[in-house]
Amino acid sequence: MHLRTMKYIKTLTILLSVIFIIAYSLNNQIFKILKYRKPTTQTFRNFPLRKMAASKKPFYFVEIKTNLKNLDTLKIDYFGEGLIPFSEYFDKGKLLAFIVIRNDSIIYQKYKDTFREHTVSNTFSIGKTMLSILLGKAIDDGFIKDINQKVIEFIPELKNKPNFNSLTIKNLLEMKSGLQFTRTGNGVFSDLFSDEAKFYYSDDLKRDLQNVKADTTNGTKWHYSNIDVLFLTWVIERASKKHVSDYFEESIWQQIGAQYEGSWGVDKEGGLENSPSSFQCTAIDLAKIGRLFMMNGKRDSVAILSTRWINESLTVSPSNKHNTSKGWQKSTHQNYWWIPQDNAKEGDFSAEGLRGQRLYVNPKTNTIIVQLADDGYGGFPYRKISHYFF
């Protein structure tokens, strides 16, 4: 190698090392962003967690020893590439797990390499849906009167800040807070200073939330934002006087019969849950959340979540209908669920997370589908698959 080239590489290495040291000393968040960039389904293991114990009364789906049908050859639409076999969809999306459950029986399951039923994985934005469920439970339990309550009733520290005196729980649930929030995906430099990365890697969420600024009048404009979910997390913590993960564990996780341990990422020991982006569980236990909604909030004859909240969550309100039009199914965001606008005949709905995490429920076919993935962005094949097994 040329001497000048070697000197250049050495100088560059030293310079990058100095940048990393300065970044770490001045801002631990920037250091984390540089180190981890876009998180994977296993990045959560590098940060503080608050765990949820497996249920003392686990629920077990019936497991059929052989898959009911061979799904590999079924042709499905893949995100602008036309029809491809499911086997190719599985590989392209770097799927880790794909489970189909009908009538409480596992009729199809496929795992990647060493990934198995007991493997815990980050579900990313499905954590938003879990928080929405917990909000409904907090209302059921009387900790919160209704979604029209003002946020400052629970977080008085926010009084006299622009936009906060009129901010309601409903604004947060509809993602219409009007608060500034920038997302990642526009390059390394942009990601370094994006709100999405800042809050994902924050070591003090409550501190950072108190520095958020207003952008538009609350209640007027939908903007997909993790900040709204974090404020709602704080509200539920204050209302229930419990950590969100502890409250979820006792009121939902234990009740649905989770077989395995789950967890929530937190900013620090004793801190706030990173609920928009760090909810970890196994695929089979995620399916039990779908079952809870399929069974109208009950396990056997015991009510876990009110039917009223389930109906509110799955019925698209007129003010939300045109928030977004995601995919061919034109999904709308409602209470942190995704509801296809053409689902009058199906009644189907889904929870969705970064990199292709999916929980799909179809009451018409009595089907629950769970997909965990490392890069599964393509398509919405779940409705077709649910009918394939019907």
From TrEMBL:
Pfam families: Beta-lactamase (PF00144). Keywords: Hydrolase. Signal peptide: none annotated. It comes from the Bacteria. This is Beta-lactamase. PANTHER family: BETA-LACTAMASE-RELATED, BETA-LACTAMASE-RELATED DOMAIN-CONTAINING PROTEIN. GO terms for molecular function: beta-lactamase activity. Residues 96-378 form the Beta-lactamase-related domain. SUPFAM superfamilies: beta-lactamase/transpeptidase-like (SSF56601). Gene3D superfamilies: DD-peptidase/beta-lactamase superfamily. Its EC number is 3.5.2.6. The keyword Metal-binding does not apply.
